[in-house]
């Protein structure tokens, strides 16, 4: 009689494959990494990858598929914060924390290379960015209404620049240097309403 599948064991093996794949993709690149090498690094037999994933591209794509629900959860968690600037900075902290991962620069390079070859990967990455963008834009718009953010800023353009700054933390990632304090400082100053000397004199 065949032994019934063990969901926990399957999940653990799938996670092991993804961890090993991330390290190899970051170090060698997608094209130079074989499924057999991924399986070996995960401590599994050479054909194990294809038991859990239809192909190597699906493995790479899976590294980013969890980002979309995570982005939705992050935006929802901070959407109604009392202080919109504090909520923006909390989102920036959460997103930039991943830049501390030593694999971040290599994975970023590979996702830029592979998105043009994999429409489904491109869709996931684009949708994740869109969710983050809309979350930032809504907070900027609310901050403008409450007077906490410079009213001359366009919410969507501002959201785009916030994302550019976060992306810059990944491009220049250094696992020994936390970029978040500088990001908070830059973005806080960027969002601050113009200083009014006349108001101080009054």
UniProtKB/TrEMBL annotation:
Domain of life: Bacteria
Record's keyword terms, sorted: DNA-binding, Repressor, Transcription, Transcription regulation
The entry's DNA-binding region: 34-53
InterPro entries listed in its UniProt record: BetI_C, DNA-bd_HTH_TetR-type_CS, Homeodomain-like_sf, HTH-type_TetR-like_transc_reg, HTH_TetR, Tet_transcr_reg_TetR-rel_C_sf
Pfam families from the UniProt entry: TetR_C_6, TetR_N
Domain HTH tetR-type intervals: 11-71
Matching SUPFAM superfamilies: Homeodomain-like (SSF46689), Tetracyclin repressor-like, C-terminal domain (SSF48498)
Signal peptide interval: none
GO molecular function: DNA-binding transcription factor activity; transcription cis-regulatory region binding
Protein name: AcrR family transcriptional regulator
Organism in which the protein naturally occurs: Saccharopolyspora hordei
